Amino acid sequence: MGAVQNTRQGFARRLASASRCLVGTWVKIPAPEPVEILADAGFDFVVIDLEHAPLTFEAAYQATVVAQGAGMSVLVRVPDRSGAYLQRLLDSGVDGILVPRVTSVAEATAAVRQMVFSPGGERGLGTTSRAGRWGGLDRAEYLRFGDEEVMRAVQLEERAAIEAVDDILAVPGLNGVFLGMGDLQLSSGRPESDPSLQKLVDKLLAAAVAQGVPAGTAVQSAAQAAAAADRGYRYVMVSNDTSLLRSAATTLVADARSRLSEGDHHGV
User: Fold this and answer.
1) Torsional sign, CA 149, 43, 219, 234
2) For residue 8, what pLDDT is reported?
3) Are the C-beta atoms of 219 and 238 separated by less than 8 Å?
4) What is the pLDDT of residue 40?
5) Distance between CA 156 and CA 102 in Å, rounded?
6) pTM for this predicted structure
7) What are phi and psi for residue 88, nearest 5 degrees?
8) Is residue 29 within 8 Å of 58, Cβ to Cβ?
9) What are phi and psi of 237, to 5 degrees?
């Protein structure tokens, strides 16, 4: 029996060929149903959040299978920069990884090396994993896809990290960057509108263009997503599954109560 064909397009290649900014959202609920709903809604990708949500590796794996089966790309934000989850998530066939709180070239290099196959990096061979189609994918294609099409992104969330962005984005094998504006505000003690923070954003985006590394960020609304795309971001996460549910539920309840009150409805 011949090797199976790899028909899926990895996130790095998808970004490179996209004519617009890709739109995704965060997944924080440990269940497959929200993932399926987000796919039906038309999101380009989801980011499974292992850093700020009570999700297990098994929940991330299940969400990955459901999302990819529904046509969405899957990124995973790992819990920290220790690298403990990287090999297993890559073997699970995710389309990309976000490594949080990277602050230096050394940390970026250590993270990226674990996501690049040897000898260029330290990722081990796992052809009998889901990423290798359980041993059915040709070994050469398994290696090519892992090195060329999986996104390996670092999150820059502190002033010092963004000031060093030119050197960080030059790390071999790094092919994505994410600006964590929330933590940047927190660590700097300044609001997003502060001119000094906006200069850092400009610096990051200029470095991303110069190095050919797509930049992403997270926003809360469609208007903010459009503004981010206009500014040069190539992928944007808008809201998250829990916030979308909360917003829809809150709006519905308020509207229902208002209409019932206005009509002075009473049961018989």
Assistant:
1) positive
2) 83
3) yes
4) 98
5) 6
6) 0.94
7) -65, -40
8) no
9) -95, 125
Tens of pLDDT along the chain (268 residues) come to: 567 888 788 999 999 999 999 999 999 999 999 999 999 999 999 999 999 999 999 999 999 999 999 999 999 999 999 999 999 999 999 999 999 999 999 999 999 999 999 999 999 999 999 999 999 999 999 999 999 999 999 999 999 999 999 999 999 999 999 999 888 898 888 888 989 999 999 999 999 999 999 999 999 999 999 999 999 999 999 999 999 999 999 999 999 999 998 766 665 5
Alpha carbon distance 117, 234 (integer Å): 26
DSSP-assigned states of every residue in 228-256: HHHHT-SEEEEEEHHHHHHHHHHHHHHHH
Other beta carbons within 10 angstroms of residue 108's beta carbon come to 27
CATH of 11-240, one of 3.20.20.60, 3.40.50.300, 1.10.630.10, 1.10.10.10: 3.20.20.60
Domain map of the chain by residue range? Answer: 11-240
Q: Give φ, ψ of 83 to 5 degrees.
A: 90, 5
Distance CA 90, CA 111 (A): 13
Contacts 24+ apart (CB under 8 A), 248-252: none
- Bond prior to 195 in cis (omega within 30° of 0): no
How far apart, in whole angstroms, are the C-alpha atoms of residue 75 and residue 94?
Answer: 6
Find residue 27's DSSP bridge partners: 48
The helix (H) or strand (E) run that includes residue 38 is helix 32-41
Beta strands in the chain (DSSP E): 22-27, 45-49, 73-77, 96-99, 151-156, 176-179, 215-219, 235-240
Size of the chain in residues: 268
Separation CA 118–CA 125 (nearest Å): 8
CB atoms closer than 10 angstroms to residue 154: 28
